[in-house]
Amino acid sequence: MKIAVITGASSGLGSEFLKQLADDASIEEFWVIARRKEMLEALQQFTVKKVRPVCLDLTLKESIIYLQDLLKQENPIVSVLVCAAGLGKVGATEEISMEDNDRMIDLNCRVAVDVTTACFPYLRRNSRIIEISSASAFSPMPGINVYAASKAFLQSYTKTLHHEMLPKGIHVTCVCPYWIKDTEFIKAATKASRKYYRHFPLASVSQSVVRMSLQASKLNLWVCTPGIVCTADRFFAKFIPHFVYVPLMDLISRI
Ligand SMILES: NC(=O)c1ccc[n+]([C@@H]2O[C@H](COP(=O)([O-])OP(=O)(O)OC[C@H]3O[C@@H](n4cnc5c(N)ncnc54)[C@H](OP(=O)(O)O)[C@@H]3O)[C@@H](O)[C@H]2O)c1
Hints:
The structure is a single chain. By secondary structure, the protein is an alpha/beta fold. It has nine helices and seven strands. Strands 3-2-1-4-5-6-7 form a seven-stranded parallel β-sheet, sandwiched between helices. β2, α2 (37-41) and β3 (50-55) form a beta-alpha-beta unit. α1 (12-21) packs across α7, α3 runs parallel beside α4 (98-119) and α4 packs parallel to α5 (145-165). The longest helix has 22 residues, at 98-119. The protein is globular and about 50 Å long. 43% of the residues are buried. NADP nicotinamide-adenine-dinucleotide phosphate is lined by residues 8-14, 34-36, 39, 57-59, 84-88, 107, 132, 134, 177, 179-180, 183-186, 188.
C-alpha cells in the first residue's frame, strides 16, 4: 500500500496538501495527523481514496511511538511525507511564556524530526519529503524570535537530509513561505501581540503555496520560496549582514 502521511492536516497548508494530492497516482491512501478528529474525518470529501484520520497530539512522545507502531503493523510505502504541523507565537521575547516556547520548539523541531525518522524505513526511490519551515528561517527575526530560530533548525536539518537522500532518489524539500493569510496560523500567532505584525501586506494564500511546494518537490529543489516576498527575503538575508538586517526587520515588523 502506498500512502501519504500529512501532519497538521486538520487545517491550513496540511489540508490543502491533501486536496492537491488527491489525484496523485503514487498515493493509494492518506494518513492525516492532527489533534482535531472531526476535521481530519471531514477530509474524506476531497478524495475518493481512503483517508485515515490519525488523531494525535504529536508533542507527546507516546504519539510518535504510536505512529511508529502503526507503520510497523501496516508496513506501507510512504510515497509522500508532508510535515506541516507547526505553531508560532508573536511578541517580544520576554512576553512569550516558557510553555509556549517549549511547545514551539517541540512541535516545529523535534516532532518534524521524529515523524520523518519514523517514516525513514518506509521511503522508497521517488518518495517525497516536504518539511514546512518559514521565510523567518533565513535570518533572526524580532517579534518571532523563538519561532524563527525553530524554523532555522528545520531548514538546516532538511538541507542536509536533501543531500543525504539524493543517492537514494528520495526528494526532500524545505518550504519557506512568507505569511499566509487564509490559515489559522496568523490568528493564533498574533493573539497576544499588539506591537508586532499587525498587518500582513502581500501575504500569500495556501493554494498557491502548496501548488509551488509540490512543483518544487517534483523538481527536487532543496528549498522552495513560494512567493515574491519570501524569495526576496532569502536573497537579502544572504547578502545583507544580519547586524543590519535584524534592525531593519524589527522596523518592518512594527508597521
Ligand atoms: N500561516 C503562515 O503565515 C505561515 C507562514 C510560514 C510558515 N508557516 C508554517 O506552515 C505550517 C502550517 O501552518 P498553517 O499556516 O497551515 O497553520 P494552521 O492552520 O494553524 O495549521 C497548523 C496545523 O498543525 C496542527 N497541530 C498544531 N499543534 C499540534 C499538535 N500538538 N499535534 C498535532 N498537530 C498539531 C494543527 O491541528 P490541530 O490543532 O487539529 O492539532 C493544524 O492542523 C506550520 O509549520 C507553520 O509554521 C505558516
